[in-house]
Amino acid sequence: MTEPGFRDIALLANLLDRPLRVEEAAAVLNLSPQDILALAGRGVAEGVLAADGAGYVATGEAPEADAPYIAYLAGALADTLGEKGASFEVGRLLAAAGRTDEAVSALVDAATSNRDESAAVLAYELDPDLSAVDRLQAGRIHLILSVRARNQGDSDEADERARDAVRRLEGTELIDAVGFAAAIASDLQESQRAEALTALGAGLATSLERYDKAGSLLTLQGRELARLGFAEEADAVLSKGVATLESHGDRGQRFRGKMNAGWVAFDRGILRDAEIAFDNLADRASDLNEPVTEASQLAYHSRALAMVGRINEAVARRNEARAIADEQGAYAISFLAALGEVEGALTWLRGDDSLQAAQAAM
Hints:
- By secondary structure, the protein is mostly helical.
- Helices cover 76% and strands 3% of the residues.
């Protein structure tokens, strides 16, 4: 192999979405940092590199090179970066090197340890069967992808991925997967399936003495029973769930339990009670440090405000929800907030407002 030159540094830099650091290039090309700096200086003069902070970025078209050599550089760079641990970047480089099983394994590790949705997406694209990892790891990836799909408004994909997660996970992770599958079934207006899943999950949680999770699932079960018309059973289960959470739940679980209680009031048409519940929760949502949950609650409050005729306040809450949701990529929440405003405006015969809200929902 010929001596490395500035074109090799440019090829390495072209593989990254950030500046290539001097020490990284030195490790891959087996040169000293001083040699890298000298070669990079030539690359800058030739117009194929530019200094950027503590490293270099590729500029213009990448130098010509055979595909096997680029794959070799990608693999060598992945090995160097992988010494610091798995990441989306390492997985992507391994994929570029043609080392697919290693890439999937690295991406799954990054996705499950850092909740990196991009890593989960690429792992699934490379290996839809996730055969390079064990059953539990595959289940975790399916659950991450389900959460992502739900936030983006793709309920069918979210449902499919949640089902795959349920088939693979165990213990407390299975409880979480069943609960999330139930929430998606609720989104799809499949209340019978949602209620059955919540009952299953609550039973499993109780058997594992995870009473916090049992309480959460009971509040969701109460909501679904109310939708199915079983009012007394719904009230009993909901009350049991809320009481369980008061004793065993953390702040986030108690918050979501009260949110389900608010939805029961909303679904029953007790709109003032729902608006008060959602108002209180919306003001406390930011304390959870869960942006998607905060956006959801603001959207729910917007919907309740619209249904009691407080359209201007509903618009303000909708805008708050939309700003957070857009930042988080949770576009389904933005849509739901605007849709609730449409419902409220139509209820109060405010045609212009409903038209504006409908345009915002599109």
